[in-house]
Amino acid sequence: MLVLTGYLRFSVSISATSPLLGGRLCLDFVNTSVAPSSLSWDELIHFLGVSRVISSERGAQLLALPESDPQAAEGLLQKARQLCVSLRKVFTAMHRKQKIASEWAESVNDILRITEGHDELVFENGVWRIEFIAREGGLDWLLAAVARSAAELVAEGPGARLRLCANPRCGLFFYDNSRTHRRRWCSMAICGNRNKVAAFARKHSTPPQYS
Ligand SMILES: [Zn+2]
Q1: Which helix (H) or strand (E) holds 163?
Q2: Between the N and C ends of the chain, which has fewer C-beta atoms within 10 Å?
Q3: CA dihedral 180, 181, 187, 193 (to 10 degrees)
Q4: For residue 8, what pLDDT band results from cuts at 50, 70 and 90?
Q5: CA Rg, the chain, in Å?
Q6: Per-residue pLDDT reduced to its tens digit, 89-110
Q7: Mean pLDDT to the nearest integer, 130-136
Q8: Ligand 1 center to residue 172 CA distance, Å?
Q9: Dist. CA 148–CA 113, nearest whole Å
C-alpha cells in the first residue's frame, strides 16, 4: 500500500512539473531549487525521476524512504543539498568568469570518489554523447550522474557556453546549445515572452499626464 501511495504521488508530481530547460543534468539539478540548502526529499526524488536518472517505480519506492529508513534518506538529502549549494557557487563563478574554489569542487569529488560506474555511448536527439551509468549500491549512486555531469562542465573551462537567464528575476542556468550561441532565455515561452510583453508595454504606454 505504501508503494502504491508513493507511486501515485510520484505520477502526480511528474505531470505537474515544468520541462527541464538547462540542457545539462547538473544545470537542471541546480535549477531544481531556488534555495539549495533547503532542497526537500520530494524535490530531489522528483528531479531524479523527470531527468530519468531513476525509473518511476524506483522513484515511488524512494519517496517512501524517509518513513522506512529516515537515517539513509537524511544522509543522502544532506549530500544532495551540499552538492546543490556547491554547484550553484561553481556555476555562478563560471558565469562571471571568476575562479572556482577547490572546496566547491570537493563536493563533486566526494561523490565521484565513492560511486562506481562506467561510461556508455548514448544516441539521443541526433547526437552521440557519453553517459555515466552508476553501479547501484547504497544511495550515493543517485547523485553520481549529476556529479559527473558537473565535472564535465567544469572541465570544459572558460569556453563552456554556460548562461544565466537574461531575466534578472529568474536565476535559471542553461547551456547554450543554439546554433547561433545567442540564447538569452531559460525558455522563450516563459522569460522570453515575458520580456517581449514588457518591452511592448513600455513602448506603447501612454506618458503620464500632468496638469
Ligand atoms: Zn528565465
Answers
A1: strand 162-164
A2: C
A3: -60
A4: very low
A5: 19
A6: 999 999 999 999 999 999 999 9
A7: 79
A8: 6
A9: 11
CA of 55 relative to ligand 1 center, distance in Å:
28
* CA–CA dist 39, 76 (Å, integer): 11
CA of 211 to the centre of ligand 1 (A): 40
Cβ burial 70-105 (10 Å sphere, 16+ → b, else e) = eeebeebbebbbbbbbbbbbbbbebeeeeeeeeebb
Helix (H) or strand (E) holding 23: none
Q: What is the pLDDT of residue 102?
A: 94
As a whole number of angstroms, the longest Cα–Cα distance in the chain is 75
- Note whether 142 and 53 are within 8 A (CB): yes
How far, in Å, from the CA of 133 to the mean position of ligand 1? 30
Question: How many angstroms does the Cα of residue 187 sit away from the middle of ligand 1?
Answer: 6
CA of 170 to the centre of ligand 1 (A): 5
Expressed in angstroms and rounded, the spacing between residue 179 Cα and the centre of ligand 1 is 19
What are the sequence ranges of the domains in the chain?
A: 2-160, 163-203
